[in-house]
Design a protein that fits this description.
The complex is a heterodimer of chains A (about 450) and B (about 170).
Chain A (H helix, E strand, L loop, with lengths): L3 H5 L5 E2 L9 H9 L4 E5 L8 E7 L2 E7 L5 E5 L14 E3 L2 E3 L6 E3 L2 E4 L3 H4 L15 E5 L2 E5 L7 H5 L2 H10 L6 E12 L4 H7 L5 H5 L1 H8 L9 H8 L3 E7 L7 E8 L1 H14 L1 H17 L7 E9 L3 E4 L8 E8 L5 E10 L4 H13 L8 H12 L12 E2 L13 H7 L5 E3 L5 H15 L2
Antiparallel strand pairs in A: 1-19, 2-11, 3-4, 3-6, 4-5, 7-8, 8-9, 10-11, 12-18, 13-14, 13-20, 14-15, 15-16, 16-17, 17-18
Chain B lengths: L7 H19 L3 H5 L2 E9 L5 E2 L14 E3 L1 H12 L11 E12 L7 E13 L2 E17 L2 E11 L13
Parallel strand pairs in B: 1-7
Antiparallel strand pairs in B: 1-3, 4-5, 5-6, 6-7
The chains are: A alpha+beta (about 450), B alpha+beta (about 170).
Chain lengths: ~450, ~170
């Protein structure tokens, strides 16, 4: 038994539940979300001039549009006259957005039409200062990121070590890249956005306890369509690495976890391909050949990572298997204790139709709104959150001490570089290094005025 | 209007079937519920996007959906719940189901009945987090040895943003 005083008096490597409270939420919107690069949409959703997607950057509605010049722009989805929402569809194609209130009209973000402008404004309206509020935009391998802070570092610098992992195991441009398929899941989780973010960014530890139902159910059936390598190699096959802290100790904290290597996952994937037929087998062999070629200089070829979080709220799932749809997930904050998740499904563009169908199916059945995996995570997050913003729980810090003190020496960096040679800080054991990095970076942003 | 070769007796039989099916779910009798479906069933809950474009040529069945299940994947969902380790259903949710606006017709080209209904499902977890799903369904119903079997179910939720993730059935 620990007294309340003793519990509160353990500040070391803990996170104060106040971090999830409404007291800090407004400051979080200002200091974390308005200064960070945020994923807003995938380029494949807007291939043509005029195509647009309505998205969000935290609580701010934005329009992501490919302009007449082919350039992608991101604007606050608010008319400059009275702040009315301009774009009311999820996506579409238009040259101009016309406000439904007084018909102010915007083209490529510029105010190009004002109803009765000469008459009612006496010709004195300076349109040049009344364009839509624009964000800075950069695209990385089809992933469109935007940031409100014009002085933000480059997206390359922001992603840092994460780029290598994204390049090889998610974006795969040499394999044709990704395409997002139509349809986007949206659901509410009545929890703070950081709970799903830190889970995607490094919580390998939860898998066995949280997702035992899926593992056990799969053990009881011969329907193995959704048994992916990520879930099965962890128990028996080596080598298996648990976390990659991209930019550990410096820069922006991004977390990747569950990295498999060696022949075992490849053999399991081949068995999956064989069930799908010759087209899938050929595609898989070619994909493996190209990856081998690309990664041949590595002392140990990583097979893939499984799950990741790009700071602050962009989560990735499904990269761990060739036959798992890639989930691009945004955890939009909707108040201190409410998150709206958006899930897009991306498939590998060059994959044959039967593989794309399988990728879509696996994501739907696993880490998705009605999947067999996500609801059990959310149940835990909800149980955490029911009293997080009131009562005593608010004063008792959360525990993030696993393997703390070993972040920089487990194993010794030189030995490890010889063994794997991958970018980022690789953990050979389960640890909470990624979560510590996440909250360290979050605190830095919150403390900087 | 619906085609007129459907007898009142048949309509009544279909309604009774749907009410019994809803009761099986309310009572968490999932194996019995699976028996309401034919072995070749497609159980599909598509997603609705609000698209402003005349050029949309989406093949609906290839889109990302909420459910796109066959009998085997429905069975896997039930297996998961029955492990007793699916936290989202421990303890089991309480659900209350209203099934209304039932119409029955028989499309000319089909030997199955087309049954449309609206539903409201109230779900409560641990005495908290009451959420409500609203939607409509279109079922294809076949009679096999005197029993109705659902061979297609399409579920369209009225809500675009789900009030929670889904570990229940509709």
């Amino acid at each position: 038994m620990t007294t309340l005083e003793q519990a509160i008096g353990r500040p070391n490597r803990s996170v104060d539940p106040l971090a999830f409270s409404r007291d800090w939420y407004p400051q979080e919107l200002e200091r974390v979300f308005r200064r960070s690069w945020m994923f807003v949409a995938h380029e494949s959703l807007i291939p043509n001039s005029g195509d647009y997607v309505a998205s969000y950057m935290a609580e701010d509605p934005v329009i992501v549009q490919r302009g007449r010049d082919g350039k992608i722009r991101v604007y606050l989805n608010r008319c400059r006259h009275r702040g009315n929402l301009l774009c009311v569809h999820d996506r579409g194609n238009t040259q101009s957005f016309v406000c439904s209130y007084h018909a102010w009209t915007y083209t490529d973000g510029e105010l190009t039409g004002v109803a009765r402008s000469r008459d009612v404004y006496h010709g004195e309206l300076d349109r040049s200062n009344l364009g839509l509020v624009g964000a800075k935009v950069q695209v990385y391998g089809g992933l469109i990121f935007a940031c409100w802070d014009a002085g933000v570092m480059s997206l390359d610098g922001y992603l840092g070590d994460a780029r290598w992992w994204l390049d090889h195991f998610l974006l795969r441009e040499d394999l044709g890249g990704l395409e997002v398929i139509p349809g986007q899941q949206r659901y509410i989780v009545p929890v703070n956005w950081k709970l799903p973010a830190e889970n995607f960014g490094g919580d390998y530890y939860h898998f066995a306890a949280t997702h035992g139902s899926v593992v056990n159910a799969l053990g009881q059936t011969d329907d193995k369509r959704i048994a992916t390598t990520g879930a099965t190699t962890a128990r028996s096959d080596k080598p298996h690495y648990f976390c990659v802290a991209a930019n550990h100790g410096h820069g922006v904290a991004h977390g990747f976890y569950e990295v498999s290597a060696g022949q075992a996952p490849r053999n399991q994937e081949l068995a999956l391909a064989q069930r799908l037929g010759p087209e899938a087998i050929d595609w898989f062999h070619e994909r493996e050949r190209r990856l081998d070629e690309k990664l041949k200089a590595m002392p140990q070829r990583p097979y893939s990572f499984h799950v990741a979080n790009i700071f602050p709220n962009f989560a990735l799932v499904g990269a761990g298997s060739a036959f798992y749809g890639k989930g691009l997930i945004l955890h939009h904050p909707r108040g201190a204790n409410r998150t709206e998740a958006w899930v897009w499904c991306a498939v590998e563009k060059n994959a044959p139709p039967i593989v794309k169908k399988q990728q879509r199916f696996v994501l739907m059945q696993r880490q998705a709104a009605a999947g067999l995996v996500a609801p059990d995570d959310h149940e835990n997050f909800e149980r955490i959150s029911e009293t997080i913003d009131s009562g005593l729980a608010r004063r008792v810090p959360f525990h993030y001490e696993m393997a703390a003190g070993h972040d920089d020496n487990d194993p010794l960096p030189e030995e490890w570089d010889r063994e794997v040679g991958w970018p980022g800080k690789i953990g050979p054991r389960i640890s909470e290094i990624n979560q510590r990095d996440f909250y360290r970076h979050w605190s830095r942003l919150m403390e900087a005025a | 209007m619906e085609s007129c070769d459907i007898s009142l007796e048949l309509c009544r039989g279909v309604e009774t079937f749907l009410y019994s099916e809803a009761r099986l779910l309310q009572d968490n009798r999932f194996d019995d519920w699976l028996n309401c479906f034919s072995d070749d069933v497609r159980y599909w809950m598509p997603i609705h996007e609000c698209i402003d474009s005349s050029s949309s040529s989406v093949i609906e069945s290839d889109t990302f959906s909420l459910f796109d299940d066959d009998k085997r994947s429905l069975e896997l969902r039930v297996l998961r719940i029955k492990t007793g380790e699916a936290h989202a259903e421990v303890p089991p949710s309480t659900t209350l189901r209203l099934v209304t606006n039932i119409t029955v017709d028989r499309p000319a080209s089909d030997d199955a009945l087309r049954v449309r209904s609206n539903f409201m499902v109230y779900q409560e977890r641990r005495g908290q987090h009451g959420v409500t799903f609203f939607g409509r369904r279109e079922d294809a119903l076949r009679q096999v040895e005197g029993q109705f079997k659902i061979s297609k179910r399409r579920i369209d939720l009225a809500q675009k943003v789900l009030p929670t993730t889904i570990s229940i059935f509709f």
